[in-house]
Specification:
The protein is an alpha/beta fold. The protein has a single domain, classed as Nitrilase/N-carbamoyl-D-aminoacid amidohydrolase, CATH 3.60.110. It is 35% helix and 26% strand. The protein has 9 helices and 16 strands. Strands 1, 2, 3, 4, 5, 12, 13 and 16 form an 8-stranded mixed beta sheet that branches. The protein has a 6-stranded mixed beta sheet with strand order 8-9-10-11-14-15, with helices on one face. A two-stranded antiparallel sheet has the order 6-7. Helix 6 links the parallel strand 10 and strand 11. The longest helix has 25 residues. It comes from Pogonomyrmex barbatus. One of its GO terms (molecular function) is hydrolase activity, acting on carbon-nitrogen (but not peptide) bonds, in linear amides. Keywords: Hydrolase. This is Nitrilase and fragile histidine triad fusion protein NitFhit.
Length: 311
């Protein structure tokens, strides 16, 4: 009988470990799941919509509460003329289809940087929209930082403002089932003033749906997203375009989710697909409590400074 005790003890220990593991699993699953999506848009709205449908369906199958789609998830045209011509109002068929997808899957959707038609026949808006699980458009943010580069030395000219109108408003964070969500788009991530403003407005999750070029993505994508998470103590969700869209444009990919400590907790590689992670607001509050940066911010001094051009 004495020889049996080790086996009994081992069985008891294993049972205790199993219970602890189950408790941990259950507590972990109490936090909402989100899906960050990655795709390769082309100049075909129908095919792009088919991809969005598949990605959202996969997000739902994996129990995500919200799915995040990248900038230009509606289309990526080969030239500026077609880009403007293919743009639709937010009441158009493309957004209507997104609403139907949200209802069908009972899921919230973040659709970053769709091409919104404007009253200007020659220009559009780059607009990040948020649709709830009832199919309602609950927020729309028009990109405020446009990427313009006209380098005479290299001959490279990339002027987003040639066909896109600047947004004029910072949209307050939106209350969602995963927390207070702030809307931004791609190039916005290079301006920490915006993310800080959104944090001060109550943001818990920052979003940067993007179509980052391959060269700049390789150099800056990960470090900037992690920096925005660390300095604001927020989750960062960055859906991404990936691969070759046409002969002139290739995107970096690597869609990711970063936690408030700056750790990458989910990431896609370079193919179309999704990555899943939890949003744990208790962790967010713990990070903010243990590193109370907001209490140390010298707004009494910052407010005295103004931006000035160096002549």
């Amino acid at each position: 009988m004495r020889r049996a005790w080790p086996a009994v003890a081992q069985l008891f220990a294993l049972k205790c470990y199993s219970i602890q593991l189950a408790k941990h699993y259950m507590s972990t699953m109490a936090h909402p799941l989100i899906a960050v999506c990655q795709m390769r848009s082309i100049a075909d709205k129908v095919k792009n919509l088919e991809v969005v449908i598949e990605l959202v369906a996969e997000a739902k199958r994996r129990s995500a509460t919200m799915a995040f789609l990248p900038e230009a998830c509606d289309f990526l045209a080969d030239n500026k003329k077609d880009t403007v011509a293919m743009a639709e109002p937010l009441t158009g068929q493309t957004v209507t289809s997104y609403k139907e997808i949200a209802i069908k899957n009972n899921i919230w959707l973040s659709l970053g940087g769709i091409h919104e038609a404007s009253d200007d026949a020659e220009k559009i808006y780059n607009t990040h929209i948020l649709i709830n699980n009832k199919g309602q458009l609950v927020a729309a943010y028009r990109k405020i930082h446009l990427f313009d580069m006209d380098n005479k030395d290299t001959g490279v000219r990339l002027m987003e403002s040639d066909y896109v109108l600047k947004g004029t408003e910072i949209v307050p964070p939106v209350s969602t089932p995963i927390g207070k969500l702030a809307l931004s788009i791609c190039y916005d991530m290079r301006f920490p003033e915006l993310s800080l403003t959104l944090r001060n407005m109550g943001a818990q999750i920052l979003t940067y749906p993007s179509a980052f070029t391959y060269q700049t993505g390789a150099a800056h994508w990960e470090m900037m997203l992690r920096a925005r998470a660390i300095e604001n103590q927020c989750y960062v969700v960055a859906a991404a375009q990936t691969g070759a869209h046409n002969k002139k444009r290739v995107s970096w990919g690597h869609a990711m989710i970063v936690d408030p400590w700056g750790a990458i907790i989910a990431q896609c590689a370079e193919k179309t697909g999704i990555a899943i992670a939890e949003i744990d607001l208790a962790l967010l509050e713990k990070v903010r409590k243990n590193m109370p940066c907001e209490e140390h911010r010298r707004t009494d001094l910052y407010s005295k400074m103004e931006y000035q051009k160096i002549i």
